[in-house]
Amino acid sequence: MAEQSEQQSEQSEVSIWLRPARSGRGPAPAFDRDRLAEAGVALADAQGLAAVTMRAVAQSLGSAPASLYRYVATRDELVELMTDRVNAEISYAGLGAGDWLDDLLVLAREARAVCLRHPWLLDVFASSAPVGPRTLAYLDRCLACLDELPLGGKDKLEAIAVLQSLVASLARAELAKQLDATEPPPWRRARDEYLRHAAATGEYPHLTTVLKDAGPAGSKSADELFDRIVTRALRGLLLAR
Amino acid sequence: MAEQSEQQSEQSEVSIWLRPARSGRGPAPAFDRDRLAEAGVALADAQGLAAVTMRAVAQSLGSAPASLYRYVATRDELVELMTDRVNAEISYAGLGAGDWLDDLLVLAREARAVCLRHPWLLDVFASSAPVGPRTLAYLDRCLACLDELPLGGKDKLEAIAVLQSLVASLARAELAKQLDATEPPPWRRARDEYLRHAAATGEYPHLTTVLKDAGPAGSKSADELFDRIVTRALRGLLLAR
DNA sequence: CTGGTTCTGCGATCGCTGTTCGCAGTATTG
DNA sequence: CAATACTGCGAACAGCGATCGCAGAACCAG
Q: Closest residue of A to B116, CA-based?
């Protein structure tokens, strides 16, 4: 009696968080969504987001590619599950020790830690902004920090978005730095070779002198200058729109 | 006499900017690298970076996919050409009107404008950092701004990198905002529906109240608060590493 | 216990991607 | 005039996400 075609075609446009995992009938599934996410996270942690293919995940679960589509409608949904899953690592224990800005900063540092543990997250955020229950829990905590501020709802959301993208940017910078320490991305050699060649031509005088300067980085005054530059830049760029 | 196999396998690991475009012999090529980049940019501007497939670019040039590999070793190299090409839009006319920070800001705004004109650039920067001659010219100008500052070479480069990622973040925010005004990405409907549902459950109280608040965004005090939050966050995050 | 229903796992396959190989043809060189 | 070194490109390959339909397992109503 029930016409399943209608139901299915409609479900495919509904968020996975609103779709029931199963509905009682039939054989018991071999795993669940969270097991899927776990396998995906393991693969992404080890070999990057690109290694999370339906075939690879299926194999790591001892299953077949087509089977995964019983749990997930698309690969993007799998990434959504993965993203929400790692949000479970966020601890809310350090809150309440200072004012609202301190709390906001504690939350930002937690987010930063998650990004450092799972670098593929930055790739995810680059092309989408998945939202699951645990993401909402984090977002809710952030909003709580801004509770008493004289800001409209949209402004609060935007403030958190800007802060979040700042967290991502700095996490990316940190990861890039500790990636420099390791060996052999093959295309980096090529880029560095071109850079050295360009510096040698003298067409880019400032670049040439800067590359020669092999002095150590990071000083007290450097951090202060960063603040100056970024604050001023932020103001100038916000004003420009 | 010449053993081409050696040459080719070695060339494939050399930056495209160090590889000669052609070497005199044989028939004249049907186009050049820049024509390739132009076609790629046109496609990316119109339909996003994902639309820049070797087949699509070839077709828009009235050519065949395999032919492109006479000009470019991989698709990534094509993206590299595209990225460098749009850097030609940067104008250095507004420089010299103020102090070094003013100049740096003028450059940042130029970069922001390029990102807004070619949103796919943000996708490129998310997964790599292509460097071509025009990119180096821009970088050199930025370094010139920092010339008289008591900073090490590495610090100067890092300062510019942070600034650049800030530009990208804000550009992304702007693009997201003007994307909200347009119609229906199909997966956004699904996400918003879940968001409304989550707000209705009462599990995320602050989110619920914030979503109810439909008041207009953007005020003088909001921009000032942004500054406070972001500056403080930057300091806290830089200190944490 | 039985028959129908509803689900599951999955082999086979589709359309798409980036990329490679080798061949036919053409311009330059000695 | 040959030899050479290039060009464009048809055909093909491997890998990707995703779909279809079927065999079989679990549940429920009677």
A: A241
Provide the mean pLDDT of chain B: 86
How confident is the model at residue B156, as a pLDDT? 87
Q: Please tell me the CATH superfamily of domain A90-182, with its number.
A: Tetracycline Repressor, domain 2 (1.10.357.10)
Residue of B29, B15, B241 lying closest to A171 (CA atoms): B241
Which of A36-45, B92-101, B138-147, B206-215 is least confident?
B206-215
DSSP category for residue B54:
H
Of B227, B213, B206, nearest to A143 (Cα)?
A: B206
What is the tens place of the pLDDT at every residue in B69-110? 999 999 999 999 999 999 999 999 999 988 888 899 999 999
Q: Who has greater pLDDT, A229 or A76? A: A76
Q: Which CATH class is domain B15-87?
A: mainly alpha
A31, A104 Cβ separation under 8 angstroms: no
DSSP label at B69? Answer: T
Could you tell me where in chain B the CATH 1.10.10.60 domains are found?
A: 15-87
Q: Which two tokens stand for residue B13?
A: 């690991």
ipTM of the assembly?
0.87
- Give A167 CA → D16 C1' in Å: 32
- Residues in Cβ contact with A143 at an 8 Å cutoff, skipping those fewer than 6 apart: A156, A157, A160, B206, B207, B210
Return the residue in B109, B138, B210, B241 with the most chain A beta carbons within 10 A, the one to mutate for interface testing.
Answer: B210
Burial of B212 by CB count in 10 Å (0-12 exposed, 13-18 middle, 19+ buried)? exposed
Determine whether the distance from the CB of B204 to the nearest atom of strand D is below 7 Å: no
Task: Give the integer Cα–Cα distance in Å for A26 and B111.
Answer: 57
The top-level CATH class assigned to A14-87 is: mainly alpha
Chain CA centroid to CA B210, Å: 32
Q: Is the pLDDT of residue B4 over 60?
A: no
**Residues 6 or more apart in contact with residue A235 via CB below 8 angstroms:** B223, B227
Give residue A118's pLDDT: 97
The phi, psi pair for B99, rounded to 5°, reads -85, -175
A63-117 tens-digit pLDDT: 999 999 999 999 999 999 999 999 999 999 999 988 888 899 999 999 999 999 9
Interface test with B, best of A95, A99, A104, A136 (most B CBs within 10 A): A136
Residue percentage of chain B with pLDDT more than 70: 85
